[in-house]
């Protein structure tokens, strides 16, 4: 396949497999003026061959809708791609060595940036101490965020650059930084990143996303996460350069937050508007104490604050959205949204499609409330793959019984709750097929969903989450956002074997998808197209 970044008026793709509900046996597709114009069989494609500007021979490849990653921190993702990545460090000593080598290799950096340490996976079971980091960096400023990005460790030199941090909530000498102290140190570290570095990081992240068949990302920004310049710079970059679409959310409260979100070009005052923190950092807000700590985490917003924000957003015609992980935090969101519905009307709240990010600790009651209130669950299946299971971090923090209840994707779907899948990158990597696999092969079997349902949540689900029901699938009239894949035989996989057997019967009309059985090879992206414009072509294809 040869690269074509110019937008042809009309393109015919043929000789492959086209994943489309319009024709489960489609092998060809016509794209015109940035939209899907037709899907159908190889024989019918002959009628279009002479009237198109370009014909692409798929050579047996699979064409699917492009993925949407519904929760991304783009600049942080780019900085992780170009900075120090500790996610593969197997021990504390290995992490310290990586820090020392990184510092030596980057003598000109004003602040050293790293991400991804997870002490719960190390035999030492503790994070790096400040004196160890001071020694490894030669006394230079260093910021190292934990894998969940809700706590961090830093060197003395960086703390000295953040006035008052030692008096801030979340500062405890010798412990990782959380809450206000973490936000202050993170802001200080990221302020040292030059505009040029920031743009290069954003460009690297979007380029990487395109290479994975991702056509859209939802940027979850806010004053406690990044900066206004970072956010507007990203939206401007995405508008000016060929690449994935960027849908921006700005997480700031109330009427002021609504006005700021609108002024910055966001589609909602939503995303990581923190109701609580994260389980790994012991800051997710729980009804009952942690198993390995004598407290219930941290509450940043209560139900009254949630209600006020939802009312302000609904009346302004913007989406509201909240970061809520612990069961107490999810309860606060549900109670707050219900109170808002009583004030402005349930129909208006449902029509606004407000969102909840992460929503890991749910109960049958809160799942039913999500369905009633029309809330979208913006979830990250790789969290379960990374932290679930009998020996995972979830069990360590919550005990086996509570841990088994986490991330109940099947129950959400049964209740009719819209799902939008994402990565929370750089918390977990951009990896769309890996994300679909994690949902289909959840560590807790009763929470598994079919590959088809998981794939829909990672394609059409992201579009629906921003109010677009006409996109994320390959049917005439839909945006021509698609990816071309080299993959093995297509199959139908579902948790219930009876469903799987029926779905493979030609009478069911169920289009197949790649085999995502753990250990099987994942598809390789050959080409990504957004709005009819090619944004990625694999070299030598």
Cα radius of gyration in angstroms: 23 Å
CATH architecture of the domain at 74-192: Roll
Question: What is the strand arrangement across the widest sheet?
Answer: 2-6-19-22-23
Q: Report the structural category.
A: alpha/beta
Number of extended strands: 23
Largest sheet: 5 strands, mixed
* CATH topology descriptor of the domain at 74-192: Diaminopimelate Epimerase, Chain A, domain 1
Estimate the strand proportion: 15-25%
Q: List unreliable stretches of 5+ residues.
A: 1-5
Round the mean pLDDT to the nearest integer and report it: 93
Number of helices: 21
CATH class of the domain at 74-192: Alpha Beta
Helix content: 25-40%
Shape: globular
N-end to C-end Cα span: 5 Å
Pfam family, one: Amidohydro_3
Domain Amidohydrolase: 54-536
InterPro entries: Amidohydro_3, Metal-dep_hydrolase_composite, Metal_Hydrolase, YtcJ-like
Organism: Streptomyces liliifuscus
What would you say this structure looks like, in words?
Among the domains are: 10-66 and 474-487 and 523-537, Urease, subunit C, domain 1, CATH 2.30.40.10; 74-192, Diaminopimelate Epimerase, Chain A, domain 1, CATH 3.10.310.70. The chain contains 21 helices and 23 strands. The strands form six sheets. Strands 2-6-19-22-23 form a five-stranded mixed sheet, covered by helices on one side. It has a five-stranded parallel sheet with strand order 14-15-16-17-18. The chain has a four-stranded mixed sheet with strand order 4-3-1-5, covered by helices on one side. Helix 8 links the parallel strand 12 and strand 13. Helix 10 packs across helix 11 (327-344). This is Amidohydrolase. Pfam families: Amidohydro_3. Keywords: Hydrolase.
């Amino acid at each position: 396949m040869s690269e074509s970044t110019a937008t042809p008026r009309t393109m015919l793709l043929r000789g492959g497999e086209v994943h489309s509900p319009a024709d489960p046996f489609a092998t060809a597709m016509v794209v015109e003026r940035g939209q899907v114009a037709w899907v159908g069989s190889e024989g019918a494609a002959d009628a279009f061959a002479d009237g198109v500007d370009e014909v692409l021979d798929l050579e047996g490849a699979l064409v699917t809708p492009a993925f949407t990653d519904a929760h991304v921190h783009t600049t942080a993702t780019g900085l992780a791609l170009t900075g120090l990545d500790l996610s593969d460090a197997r021990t504390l000593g290995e992490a310290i060595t990586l820090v020392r080598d990184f510092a030596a290799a980057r003598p000109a950096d004003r602040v050293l940036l790293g991400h991804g340490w997870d002490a719960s996976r190390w035999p030492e079971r503790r994070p790096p101490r400040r004196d160890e980091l001071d020694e490894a960096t030669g006394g230079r400023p260093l910021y190292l965020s934990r894998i969940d990005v809700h706590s961090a460790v830093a060197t003395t030199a960086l703390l000295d650059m953040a006035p008052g941090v030692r008096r801030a909530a979340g500062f405890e000498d010798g412990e990782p930084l959380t809450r206000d102290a973490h936000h202050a140190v993170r802001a200080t570290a990221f302020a040292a990143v030059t505009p040029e570095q920031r743009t290069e990081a954003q460009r690297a992240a979007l380029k990487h996303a395109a290479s994975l068949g991702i056509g859209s990302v939802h940027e979850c920004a806010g004053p406690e996460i990044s900066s206004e310049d970072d956010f507007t710079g990203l939206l401007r970059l995405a508008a000016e350069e060929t690449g994935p679409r960027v849908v921006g959310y700005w997480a700031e409260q109330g009427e002021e937050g609504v006005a700021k979100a609108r002024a910055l070009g966001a589609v909602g005052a939503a995303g990581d508007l923190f109701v609580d923190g994260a389980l790994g950092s012991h800051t997710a807000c729980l009804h009952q104490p942690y198993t390995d700590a004598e407290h219930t985490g941290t509450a940043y917003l209560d139900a009254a604050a949630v209600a006020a924000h939802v009312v302000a957003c609904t009346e302004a015609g913007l989406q509201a959205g909240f970061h809520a992980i612990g069961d107490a935090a999810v309860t606060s969101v549900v109670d707050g949204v219900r109170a808002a519905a009583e004030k402005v009307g349930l129909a208006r709240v449902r029509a606004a499609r407000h969102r909840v990010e992460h929503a890991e600790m749910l109960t049958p009651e809160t799942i039913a409330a999500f369905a009633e209130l029309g809330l979208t669950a913006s979830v990250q299946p790789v969290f379960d793959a990374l932290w679930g299971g009998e020996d995972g971090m979830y069990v360590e923090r919550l005990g086996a019984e509570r841990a088994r209840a986490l991330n109940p994707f099947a129950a959400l779907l049964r209740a009719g709750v819209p799902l939008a899948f994402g990565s929370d990158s750089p918390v977990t990597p951009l990896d769309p097929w890996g994300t679909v696999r994690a949902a289909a092969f959840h560590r807790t079997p009763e929470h598994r969903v079919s590959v088809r349902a998981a794939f829909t949540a990672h394609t059409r689900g992201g579009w629906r989450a921003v109010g677009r029901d006409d996109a994320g699938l390959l049917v005439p009239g839909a945006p021509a956002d698609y990816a071309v894949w080299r993959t093995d035989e297509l199959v139908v996989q579902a948790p219930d074997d009876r469903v799987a057997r029926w779905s493979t019967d030609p009478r069911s009309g169920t289009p197949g998808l790649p085999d995502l059985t753990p250990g099987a090879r994942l598809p390789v992206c050959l080409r990504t197209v957004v709005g009819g414009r090619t944004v990625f072509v694999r070299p030598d294809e």
